[in-house]
Amino acid sequence: MELKEIKELIKLVSEAGVSEVEVERGDFKLAIKKVEEKVYVQQSQPVVQVPVAAAPVAVPSAPAPVVTSVPTPPSSSEHAGNLITIKSPMIGTFYKTPAPDKPAFVNIGDEIKPGKVLCIVEAMKLFNEIESEVSGRIVKILVENASPVEYDQPLFLVEPI
Length: 161
Prior knowledge:
161 residues; mainly beta; 4-stranded antiparallel beta sheet; 9% helix
């Protein structure tokens, strides 16, 4: 069997959707097997939905409905303008400690300086130490230990010193 014929058989296997072809000619035997690509699916944590309060509805039989507004707590972006937000540089799992039996890298009230390790973000079995780029005091830790984080998700609020 010549190379041209072998190439044609390979092309036939790939185009026809056949997974295996065997050809025998005298002492010559050729087997072509198509290897299927493996698909990997990564399961993520389920998203927790927070129920939203329904807007007040006026009842037609009521003479004059009273609408009251409930103040909403400020979000992390509405904190005092002088706070610095330290964000995750990658997608992964957030860890406050270097090991389960070790103390946290930082706690609320701790002073930090550039280069200080704040946490670890595990991404694809690699443990990446996240270091501070600012000086200040930790005001709030916005993420729970061992929880998934997204790229650019706020992790810490820091008050500059």
